[in-house]
């Protein structure tokens, strides 16, 4: 990626001039002064306070988000979503538009301010928090995630058919440390069976018992992210599947559960990926707890030197890593019932039904396959 594209990317996710200069220098070995950076941005017609996007277009974009899944989102989160969507707009403009478009939501958020416990981590990769989110589990959709305790960057957040298979969860872990080319110093999770393999691998990879057990309610960092994920993404799907259940289109039997997995799982993952992108690039406000750094999670994770700390990851032993890989399952899309999924695929081929491109198509596909499957199996 050339310098101009890198500058555009870092500018588009809302980094400050200082952060962009540091990213270019430390991550790409491209050395620019802030003055040179500003000249290049001007040549690309990129400004923070000029060439603002049309208020009408921003308003339409916010209205769409509010109607879809942003009813509980604050103006900082919505501002970051505007940046990622390519709009040039100020944070106060977004706040003003939200007060007009969603006055009830603004008032509700003001009443529900939380007082949080103090938290401390030395630096990135010092402590990872692992947990599963089971609010969609009744519909056959399981979510597992991991967050870095210091920077609050999401390490992974994956939709799978099972949140209790330790091989699948270990696969997420091994994939992440292979990308990092190092292992976190410590990992925290509950005593569920799904964390058994991670605990053993963490002990082997670091030559010490560095998996910390504790209840999910005390897993502060990941629990805070689950709250945001529900507001930004999962609440929509909870209500969506709940509506299918209420109108009699979902009973929880083997046909319905496998159909939900086949038809809707990719759409859920896409929404989660978008929420993770916004989370990793949104700016976290300073708090009264001086031990908690403020800034964007992606910057706090990649450039800890800016906050006077360092990366606490531990180098990998490739031989030990290969042994660990043999105890993992990396195909997270393996269905819980392969025979049932193959049956659905045959029905689609026989009836010339294409894969869905949007949620409306997915709904139609779900109803159609449900009727065909019940007719074939139960002769209904």
Strand order across the biggest sheet? 3-2-1-5-6
Structural class: alpha/beta
What does the overall shape look like? globular
Termini, distance in Å?
Answer: 57 Å
CATH topology title of the largest domain = Nucleotidyltransferase, domain 5
| Major β-sheet profile | 5 strands, mixed
Poorly predicted spans: none
| Mean pLDDT reading | 86
Query: In total, how many domains does the architecture comprise?
Result: 3
What is the CATH homology-level superfamily of the largest domain?
A: Ribonuclease H-like superfamily/Ribonuclease H
SSE string: HHHHHHHEEEHEEHEHHHEHHH
Radius of gyration: 23 Å
**What is the CATH-assigned architecture of the largest domain?**
2-Layer Sandwich
What is the percentage of strand-forming residues? 5-15%
Share of helix, binned: 40-55%
Detailed description of the structure:
- By secondary structure, the protein is an alpha/beta fold.
- The chain folds into three domains: 3-111, no CATH class; 127-325, Nucleotidyltransferase, domain 5; 338-378, no CATH class.
- Helix content is 54%, strand content 8%.
- The chain has 15 helices and seven strands.
- It has helices at residues 3-12, 17-28, 34-43, 55-68, 75-84, 91-101, 103-111, 166-180, 196-206, 220-246, 254-281, 297-302, 318-325, 338-350, 359-378, and strands at 127-133, 142-148, 154-160, 182-183, 186-189, 211-213, 314-315.
- The strands form two sheets. The protein has a five-stranded mixed β-sheet, sandwiched between helices. It has a two-stranded antiparallel ribbon with strand order 4-7.
- Helix 6 packs across helix 7 (103-111), helix 8 (166-180) packs parallel to helix 9 (196-206) and helix 11 packs antiparallel against helix 15.
- The longest helix is centred in the last third of the chain and has 28 residues, at 254-281.
- It is globular, with a radius of gyration of 23 Å.
């Amino acid at each position: 990626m050339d310098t101009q594209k890198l500058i555009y990317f870092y500018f588009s996710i809302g980094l400050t001039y200082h952060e962009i200069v540091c990213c270019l220098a430390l991550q790409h070995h491209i050395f620019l002064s802030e003055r040179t950076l500003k000249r290049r941005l001007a040549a690309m017609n990129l400004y923070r306070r000029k060439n603002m996007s049309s208020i009408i277009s921003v308003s339409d974009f916010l209205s769409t988000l509010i109607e879809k899944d942003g009813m509980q989102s604050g103006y900082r989160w919505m501002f970051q979503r505007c940046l990622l969507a390519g709009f040039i707009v100020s944070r106060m403009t977004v706040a003003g538009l939200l007060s007009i478009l969603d006055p009830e939501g603004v008032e509700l958020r003001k009443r529900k301010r939380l007082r949080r416990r103090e938290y401390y981590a030395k630096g990135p990769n010092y402590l990872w928090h692992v947990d599963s989110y089971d609010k969609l589990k009744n519909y056959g959709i399981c979510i597992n995630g991991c967050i870095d305790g210091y920077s609050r960057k999401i390490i992974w957040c994956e939709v799978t058919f099972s949140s209790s298979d330790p091989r699948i969860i270990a696969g997420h872990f091994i994939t992440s440390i292979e990308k990092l080319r190092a292992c976190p110093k410590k990992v925290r999770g509950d005593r569920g069976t799904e964390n058994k393999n991670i605990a053993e691998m963490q002990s082997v990879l670091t030559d010490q018992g560095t998996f910390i057990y504790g209840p999910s309610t005390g897993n502060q960092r990941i629990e805070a992210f689950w709250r945001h994920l529900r507001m930004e993404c999962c609440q929509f799907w909870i209500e969506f599947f709940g509506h299918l259940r209420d109108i009699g289109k979902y009973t929880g039997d083997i046909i319905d559960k496998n159909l939900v997995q086949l038809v809707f799982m990719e759409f859920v993952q896409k929404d989660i990926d978008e929420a993770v992108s916004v989370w990793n690039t949104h700016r976290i406000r300073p708090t009264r707890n001086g031990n908690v750094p403020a800034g964007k999670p992606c910057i706090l994770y990649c450039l800890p030197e800016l906050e006077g700390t360092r990366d606490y990851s531990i180098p990998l032993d490739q031989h030990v890593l290969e042994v660990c890989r043999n105890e993992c399952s990396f195909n997270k899309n393996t269905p819980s019932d392969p025979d049932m999924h193959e049956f659905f695929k045959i029905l689609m081929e026989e009836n010339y039904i294409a894969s869905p491109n949007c949620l409306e198509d997915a709904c139609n596909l779900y109803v159609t396959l449900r009727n065909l499957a019940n007719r074939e199996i139960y002769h209904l």
